[in-house]
Amino acid sequence: MRILLIEDDLEAAAYLAKGLREAGHTVDHAGNGTDGLFLATSERYDSMIVDRMLPGLDGLAIIQALRSSGNATPVLILSALGKVDDRVRGLKAGGDDYLVKPYAFAELLARIEALGRRGQAGQPETRLKVEDLEMDLLGRSVRRAGREIDLQPREFRLLEYLMRHAGQVVTRTMLLENVWEYHFDPQTNLIDVHISRLRQKVDKDFEQQLIQTVRGAGYSLRAAR
């Protein structure tokens, strides 16, 4: 994850940042509330750790400013204020979790990683990628090895379904129900025709073939072995 740490205690911040980086995360640090809010609004983070009492702008004001602007990045509040009223105030301000100082680093790491997973689960998927094939769901565009591929709407839906199930065997029934919204088999070569057209656009002129026929079962989008 990319994490923003807003903490004015430089020694504590260095300890936290070191531990988070050793756990595989990227950490940006701000030593006061003003700089912290600037980073939080100008960069994209997977989660934030915000000390409650900060110079310049306190932690709760930062969180309230983010929430009022529609920024839903998960926030873990750190504070020496541990009474129930303090924790409730922090959560009501828009914090997602509240950890009282002093704390164990292992617990902080577990909490911030849990918040990161929760934030990722709430974000809609906008891009799909299999090998060198990329699909932009918002822009409705497809590229392979950087080269744009022009697809008809049905071809786009067919490829999207195959990419969402990359590596799996997709049956004719699955395609009929999820791409054509048929709940019966029309007994035609409809799927074969579309797969053939898709292959011409996705695999033609490329050494590595991605759309595989699984005999007697269906199709699979994966690199040929």
Structure report:
The protein is elongated. Strand 8 (141-144) and strand 9 (147-149) form a beta hairpin. With 225 residues, it is of the alpha/beta class. Strands 2-1-3-4-5 form a five-stranded parallel sheet, with helices on both faces. It has eight helices and twelve strands. Helix 2 (33-42) runs parallel beside helix 3 (59-68) and helix 6 (153-164) crosses helix 8 (190-202). The model has no long low-confidence stretch (mean pLDDT 90). The longest helix is centred in the middle third of the chain and has 17 residues, at 105-121.
Any descriptors?
single chain; 225 residues; alpha/beta; 5-stranded parallel β-sheet; 4-stranded antiparallel β-sheet
How do you describe this structure in short?
This protein is α/β, with parallel strands linked by helices.
Q: Using the alpha-carbon principal axes, give the shape.
A: elongated
**Which percent range fits the helix content?**
40-55%
How would you write the strand order of the largest sheet? 2-1-3-4-5
Element-level helix/strand string: EHEHEHEHEHEEEEHEHHEE
Q: Report the strand count.
A: 12
Mean pLDDT: 90
Q: Report the end-to-end length measured between terminal Cα atoms.
A: 32 Å
Number of helices: 8
> What is Rg?
24 Å
Tell me the major beta sheet: 5 strands, parallel
Strand content: 15-25%
- Unreliably modeled segments: none
The computed structural class is alpha/beta
